[in-house]
Amino acid sequence: QVQLQQSGPGLVKPSQTLSLTCAVSGDSVSSNSAAWSWIRQSPSRGLEWLARTYYRSKWYSDYAVSVRSRLDINAVTSKNQFSLQLNSVTPEDTAVYYCAREAAARGYGMDVWGQGTAVTVSS
Amino acid sequence: DIQMTQSPPSLSASVGDRVTITCRASQTIGTYLNWYQQKPGRAPNLLTYAASSFPSGVPPRFSGSGSGTDFTLTISSLQPEDSGTYFCQQSFTTPRTFGQGTKVGIK
Fold first, then answer.
1. pLDDT tens for residues A79-96?
2. Contacts of A46 in chain B (CB under 8 A)
3. Terminus of chain B with fewer CB atoms < 10 Å: N or C?
4. What pLDDT is recorded for position A56?
5. Within 13 Å of residue B105, how many CA atoms lie on the same side as its CB?
6. In the 8-state DSSP scheme, what is residue A93?
7. Which of B42, B43, B49 is nearest residue A109 as measured by Cβ atoms?
8. Under 8 Å between Cβ of B98 and B29
9. Which residues touch B46 (CB under 8 Å, ≥6 apart)?
10. Nearest to B96 among A49, A111, A113 (CB)
């Protein structure tokens, strides 16, 4: 059974960096049949896909234009986890953040989700 | 970006009713359309993928259809546990995009 376990702070000060980690069990972040995404949800923006990373003989990453200049997504194969770093946060980045697996066998639907991390950006 | 438009934004129906939610993409996405159910305080849960396929464990009262730009999620006989918010999402291209959601309530 594939599980995703998120970790990271719930409170970040404006202008600082938000760092979240998603630990994968039951699958490999280096799988050739999956991609690993970060999504956030807020009342004002709804569900907003942020980025994904995947391995197909080498690592690839895709980003949402709205956060491209501030966001970095990385996989750490030795720990079987992937992470999100969002720089220069503002109160607009307050949201529940989720990690998720996109499964090629399911049309790249997001079939496994982390538990979510409620992040507040405030001084 | 591909815009996903759902309707209605909310609905209330009785147990046993047939419920239909629609989703329209701003450009053709083939059958790269997924539906999710979300309960309050929980992560979304994949309900259908590839427009009309189901992960194991999804009750047969749920069905999905459509291709191109127009898609439908149908609940053939609404049950109390079906209350929640339903989202469509395209996986045709990045950035992935979601509909704004349809909140389903039980009368």
1. 999 999 999 999 999 999
2. 98, 100-101
3. C
4. 96
5. 6
6. G
7. B49
8. no
9. A106, A109, A110, A111, B34, B35, B36, B55
10. A49
